[in-house]
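input
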Amino acid sequence: MPKSRPGYAGLPRISYGRLVPDNGSVLEMTRETFEELVAEALDRIPPELTRLMDNVAVFVEDEPPADDPELLGLYEGTPLTERGEWYAGVLPDRITIYRGPTLRMCESREDVIAETEITVVHEIAHHFGIDDARLHALGYG
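output
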C-alpha cells in the first residue's frame, strides 16, 4: 500500500508496494539482470520527460526496510512541483527499486519486466509531483 513517511534529511518518502502473494516459490534472477531490467524501464521513459528530471538518482536494493517487507519502490526527496528558489545545494532525490519483493510476487520473467516498469514509472511520477490517487487512476498503483 502507498505510504508517506519522513525520509532522509527530513525529506518526504513516498513508497509503492503491493501485497506479495505466497506462491510457494521465489523467481530466481541475479541482481545484475534485475538492474538491467530497471535500466531498460528507465530507457522507456520518453526523452521529453527524462530531460525534465532534475537532481534524482535511481538505485536498486535487494530488500526494503524490515518494517515494510513488501515495498517494491520508494521515492525520497522533494518533488519538482514543490521546489522553489530555496532549492539549491541539496542531496539528490532518491528512487530505490527493491528486487526481493518484486521477485517474490512475480511468477515469470515477463511479470518481473512488467512490474519493474510499473514501479519505475510510479516512483518517477512522484518525482514529478504526481500523487498516488492520480497514479491509481492512470493504472500505475
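quick obs: The chain has one domain: 3-17+28-80+90-138.
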